[in-house]
Amino acid sequence: MNSPTPSAPDWIALSRELKSIAEAGLRYSDGPYDIERYKRLHELASLPMQAATPEFKWPQEFGYATPKVDIRAAVLDDGKRILLVQEASTGEWTLPGGWADLNVSPAENAVKEVREESGIDVEVVKLMALWDKDKQGHPRQPEHVYKLVFLCRMTGGKLTTSLETSGADFFRVEDLPTLCPHRAARHYLDLAWQHAANPDLPTAFD
């Protein structure tokens, strides 16, 4: 009888977990020997990532490690076109958004990001999705990320660009440009059109 082939280690998940253990230990330990061990563990946590990126080094954060939060806004105009912004760094298009800022709610963050990146004013209609980025078909990255995707309604403003964006426009489903694979995926956009057509749809989650 053949033994099952062992699966390859998930080095990204391992690296994240080692970092989390080290930072929790540094936060809650007070013994000098334990602190030294956790500092060394934090250094070792970077090693699995350095196979692909030799210069990679985890920053040390304070306290218990938790996932980062990425806020995205799906904005539809009266013609049901969807707002996309073009990343200045890559030329690819995505839903407006970014890392959640301190001292603002998730919905407030969505409104702020849309205004800053596109010049458009919006109001939040509903939370469409709360997803684990690793489970949504995106390329893996060192950080573990939760994606909050809000459906928004345009209330005013004028299309413009910012330091982070080189373009902003509304698109129909048949005219969509190439999307940035790290920030949003086609099913995010499809979900927005589904919620616009059926407002009673529940929030998607995994």
Write structural notes for this entry.
The chain has 5 helices and 8 strands, in the order αααββββαβββαβ. With 206 residues, the chain is of the alpha/beta class. It folds into 2 domains: 11-50; 68-205, Nucleoside Triphosphate Pyrophosphohydrolase (Alpha-Beta Complex), CATH 3.90.79.10. Helix 1 packs antiparallel against helix 2 (32-45). The chain starts with 10 loop residues before the first helix and ends with a strand.
| Structural classification | alpha/beta
- In total, the number of domains comes to 2
Any low-confidence stretches, pLDDT <50, length ≥5?
Answer: none
Helix content: 25-40%
Shape label:
elongated
What value does the average pLDDT take?
A: 92
CATH topology (fold) name of the largest domain:
Nucleoside Triphosphate Pyrophosphohydrolase
- Strand order, largest beta sheet: 4-1-6-5-8
Q: What can be said about the biggest beta sheet?
A: 5 strands, mixed
CATH architecture grouping of the largest domain = Alpha-Beta Complex
* Strand elements, count: 8
Text of the CATH class of the largest domain: Alpha Beta
Strand-residue proportion: 25-35%
